[in-house]
C-alpha cells in the first residue's frame, strides 16, 4: 500500500480544488447520468435482481462525488 506524507497531501489538495472549482458542466452531466441510473432501477432489476447491488453501489458513488463537487465548489465560491 502506498503511503502519502502530510506534505504530499497538502500539495495535492490545491491542485484538486483548482481542477474541480468552477466545473459546473461536469457536475450537471454527472447529476443527469446518476438520475438516469436511478430511473432505470426498477426496469433493470426486473430483468436481473443481482444488478440491483451494482446499481446501488453506483448510486452511492455518484452521491459521494456530487457531494464532493458541491463542497469544493462552495469552498472556492462562497456565493454558490
How would you describe what is shown here?
This protein is an all-alpha fold. It has a domain at 35-80. 81% of the residues lie in helices and 0% in strands. It has 3 helices and no strands. The longest helix is centred in the C-terminal third of the chain and has 26 residues, at 51-76. It starts with 5 loop residues before the first helix and ends with a helix. The model is unreliable at 8-15 (pLDDT under 50).
How would you concisely characterize the structure shown here?
This protein has 3 helices and no strands. The protein has 80 residues and is mainly alpha-helical. Helix 2 (24-47) runs antiparallel to helix 3 (51-76).
Quick one: how many beta strands?
Answer: 0
What's the helix count? Answer: 3
Shape: elongated
Helix content: over 70%
List its salient traits.
single chain; 80 residues; mainly alpha; 81% helix
SSE layout:
Layout: H1 6-20, H2 24-47, H3 51-76
